[in-house]
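Please review this one:
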Amino acid sequence: MNRRPKRAGTPGAFKKGETKNPVGRPKGKRNPIYAALDDIADEASKRVIRRAVLDAENGNTKAQEILLSRMWPVRAGGRPVFIDLPRIKTMEDVGVALDEIVLGMSDGRLTAEEGAQLTTAVQAKVKFIETVDIINRLEKLERDALGAVEHEG
């Protein structure tokens, strides 16, 4: 007897929502093994934390590192960057902003990665300014062309 499962779409294969075990585990009910492990962890966690705090207070640098990393975790997006950039409205503002970014990297206020991220943001603003400029020029050309047609007609 062939016990290999049939592929979806073939006769006799399960259809979406079908099961051979309709009783199964109810939705929302946790796996009993995971529930037991969570209970064990709950019982031990207070003792482990107290021990880590005592070790840290007694100079254990690994315990200190673990506790501090939990109290002040590293931010997912990095640290906030405080640098005085101009509001970018024109292409001239772009040059001032890029100069400030380079200066910030050279004097240590910004890392190279932070400078690169800020430069990417400035480049996005450049594309926006260029796009608005192209749209304005196109609209002007269309108005001028429409005005020329009206004067001829």
User: Anything to note?
Assistant: The mean pLDDT is 86. Residues 55 and 80 are 32 Å apart (CA to CA).
